[in-house]
Amino acid sequence: MKRVSLFLLTTLVLLFSQSATARVIKVLAIGNSFSDDAVEQNLYELAAEGGDSLVIGDAYRGGQGYESHWHVVEQQKADFEYRKIVGGQKTNERRTLLDCLTDEPWDIITFQQVSQDAGDYDTYEPWLTMLIDYVREHATNPNVQFGLHRTWAYANDSNHWGFPKYDKDQQRMFQAIIDATNRARKAHPELKILIPAGTAIQNGRTSYIGDRFNRDGYHLSYKLGRYTAALTWLEVITGQSAVGKQFAPVGLNKWQVEVAQLSAHAAVTHPNKVTPIKVTPEGLDADGYVTLHDVPYRTEFVSDYQQQQDKMDIYLPTREEGFATVVWYHGGGMSVGGKHIPTELQKQGICVIGVGYSLCAGDNKDPNAPNRYVTTVDGVDDAAAAAAWVLKHIAEYGGDPKKVYLSGHSAGGYIVSLIGLDKSRVAKYGEDVDKVAALIPFSGQAITHYQNRRDRGISDYRPIIDTEAPLYWVRPDCPPILLICGQRERELLGRYEENAYLWRMLQLVGHKNAYLYELDGFDHGSMYGPAHSILLEYIRNHR
Description:
Elements: H1 2-21, E1 24-31, H2 33-39, H3 43-49, E2 53-60, H4 66-74, E3 80-86, E4 89-95, H5 97-102, E5 108-111, H6 127-138, E6 145-149, H7 170-187, E7 193-195, H8 197-205, H9 224-238, H10 254-269, E8 289-296, H11 304-309, E9 311-317, E10 323-329, E11 351-355, H12 376-393, E12 399-409, H13 411-421, H14 424-427, E13 438-442, H15 450-455, E14 481-486, H16 495-508, E15 514-519, H17 528-541
Parallel strand pairs: 1-2, 1-5, 5-6, 6-7, 10-11, 10-12, 12-13, 13-14, 14-15
Antiparallel strand pairs: 2-3, 3-4, 8-9, 9-11
Helix pairs in contact: 4-6, 8-9, 8-10, 9-10, 12-13
C-alpha cells in the first residue's frame, strides 16, 4: 500500500509540475518590419517545443518609429497592421493601437525604435514617454511588464539611406544602439525587459558565417537572421534556453543552427557586449564550403560492389541558407568514371552532390569482375535512389528541397532524362521526381543507351526506343527540361538529333518548359564547360 501511495504521489507531482510549466504567455510588440523579422516567424514553434503557448501580437507600421507611432495614436487612426498569432495561425487586421492593446490581457508589451534612429537617443523622446504612458493607461492586465526590443546594426555593405548617420560603420551603429537603449531603460525603469536581438546578430557575425545575417543589408535574412532573433526573444520571455532547441526552419544546416543558438544565448547573458562565437565546420575552406565524402544513399545492398558504389560526395555552401542543389551524375558510358564535383559548379553558392552508381563491366571481360552482372538498369536504379535521398534529406543540410536540379553529362545526362521522365523510378524510393526544379542533361542519349544495346548484342548504329529510352516516357507534366548538346556535326553519332526529337515530342504532347540548346563549335567533350554556364544561369534566374 505504501508503494502504491508513493507512486500516486509521484505521478501527481509530475503532472502538476508539467501543467505548472506549460504556460500561456501573451506578448505584444509595437514596432515595424524589424519586429516582424523577430517575432512573426519561428518564435511560436520554439516556445511550443518547450511547452509554452504564445499569443503573439505585432502592432506593425512599416518603417515607422516612436514619433510617427505617437502621431497616429493621438489621432486614433487605425493605421497599425495588427498581426496576431494564436495556435500558430496568423491573422492581420487594420486597427488602432488602442484596439491592439485591449484585444488581450497582454503579459508583455515591447517598444522598438525605427532602425535608422535606433542609435540616436534624441529621437526617442518625448515620444517614447508618451507611448509608455498611453500603453500603461490602456493595458488591461494590471501585471503587464514592459520591454525594449534592441534591434541590430546594418550589414557592412548596406545601402540603407540611414546608414550614413553612423558613417556607414556597423560597429559604430551597434554601439550607438547599445548606448541609446541603455539610456532609454535608465530613463524608464518600467522597461524591465530587454530583448537584445541586435546583440545576438552581432555575436553571430563573429562566427565563420560572417556578415550574412541580412537579406537586403538591413532586414534579417529569412532563415538564419530571423531564427537568431526569435531565439533571443524566446530565452528572454519564456526562460527557455536557446541552446539545444530541436526546432529550426528548413534551409539551415547544423552549424548555422548552432551559431544562432549560441549567439542568442550569449546575447541574453551578456547583452551589452559582443561574444565571439567559435563554431567551425570541420574541413571548412576559405570560401565557406565543406565536402562530405562517401555519404551512403542506400541502407540495403544486393552486393559488396553496390555498397562500394552507392555513395555521394556532398559539396556544401555552409554560409548560405535555403540554397539550390545540383545532383550530378558523371559520364562514362555507364561502364567507367566515378563520382566527382565539377569544378565549374564550385564556389557558386550552391550545393553540388556527386553521385556514384553501379557500372557495367563494359569492355572488361574478366569473369571475376565484381560488376560482371551489373546492367545499365541497375545503374539507373541506383541513380533514382540517390535522387530520392536528396529530395528527402537535403533540408537537413540547409538546402531548399524545392530547388533540387538533376544534371549530368553523357551517360549522366541519359540517367537524368530517364529518371526524370519515367516517374516510377524515383517513386520506387518513396519520392516524386516532379518535385525537382528542373532536369538539365548534357549530351545524354534519348534512345536506349548504347551500353544497354551492346549487352544485348545490338550494334551502336541500330537505335532502339524501348522502356530504357527517355523518349519512351515523354509526358507533358515532367519538370522543366533543358536539353543541351554540342554542335550536331561534332557530337557523338546522332546525339543532337536524338535530343531534338525528344524536344519535339515534348512540344507535341504539350510540355510548356522544354528547351533545346545546340552549342556551335563544341563537340561531345568540350560542350561540358559552356553547358555548365547555361545550368548556372538557369539556377540564378529561378532562385
